[in-house]
Design a protein that fits this description.
Elements (H helix, E strand, L loop, with lengths): L1 E2 L7 E3 L2 E2 L12 H11 L12 E2 L15 E4 L12 H13 L4 E6 L2 H7 L9 E6 L7 H7 L5 E6 L16 E5 L11 H14 L2 E6 L27 E2 L2 E2 L9
Parallel strand pairs: 2-5, 5-6, 6-7, 7-8, 8-9, 9-10
Antiparallel strand pairs: 1-2, 3-4, 11-12
Protein name: Protein gp37
InterPro entries: DUF5131
């Protein structure tokens, strides 16, 4: 367990570590960079670097949390990676099923495997299932997600590195949008964000704008949230047309 700086969650829990690149959104993978650091520091869990590894010893961690938590599952991996055995995925789901006081946010780019395995898993209401969509080419993941029995379904349109023009939000409860950060971050266009927000407004879907990624991408150079001392600071700022949009699905409120 680790406290998280990710604006839309509280904690991270990583029963799986390691991954492999599958689409353009993976190019500057945060988890891969962080893994290199942790490996160099000699952290036992990351001794094999970014190879996919399951960690059965972490499965009991959620049972020890005394208060209800919002938890991002596998911030350092992808639970539906093909190298993660179905038996271990079921074990992770069992923990989530048995701790209904916590909200678990699971995010994958492997939507095909998600659909393949979905009927073998138990989808209690506290499991929020999401897919990553970085541009138009990967909107098919949304259709895959909609086929699952997950009670709360969400999209992480981050990093948004290209226009999305066919955004099917039927059965989707929440959309997160964010720009890429880091030294080699790819640009973010305001019109891309505006399109997603407009679709969310039309469909009455909760819209969460996380960050511009870099201040040079921000359409408003005077955005006060660019300042690291601002209480709502995010990388590159997080205002959109002078407002901060950080809605959550109604169930969370």
């Amino acid at each position: 367990m680790a406290q998280s700086n990710i604006e839309w969650t509280e904690l991270t829990w990583n029963p799986v570590t390691g991954c492999s690149k599958i689409s353009p959104g993976c190019k500057f993978c945060y988890a891969e960079s962080m893994t290199r650091r942790l490996t160099a520091m000699g952290v036992e869990k990351y001794k094999d670097g970014f190879k996919v590894r399951t960690h059965p010893d972490t499965l009991n961690i959620p049972y020890g949390w005394k208060k209800s938590k919002v938890v991002f599952v596998n911030s350092m991996s992808d639970l539906f990676h093909p190298e993660v055995p179905i038996e271990f995925i079921k074990a992770v789901f069992a923990v989530m099923n048995n701790t209904p006081q916590h909200i678990y946010q699971v995010l994958t780019k492997r939507s095909e495997r998600l659909v393949e395995l979905a009927d073998q898993l138990t989808w209690t209401r506290n499991i929020w299932m999401g897919v990553s969509v970085e541009n138009e080419d990967y909107t098919y993941r949304i259709d895959d997600l909609s086929l699952t029995p997950a009670k709360i379904k969400f999209l992480s349109i981050e990093p948004l590195i290209g226009a999305v023009r066919t955004l099917n939000l039927k059965n989707i409860d929440w959309v997160i949008v964010g720009g890429e950060s880091g030294h080699k971050a790819r640009p973010l266009e305001k019109e891309w964000i505006d399109y997603v927000k407009a679709r969310c407004d039309q469909a009455n879907v909760a819209f969460f704008f996380k960050q511009w990624g870099k201040s040079k991408f921000n359409a408003n150079p005077d955005d006060p949230t660019i300042d690291a001392n601002h209480p709502k600071h995010a990388k590159g700022g997080c205002e959109l047309d002078g407002k901060i949009f950080r809605k959550l699905p109604v169930v969370a409120a």
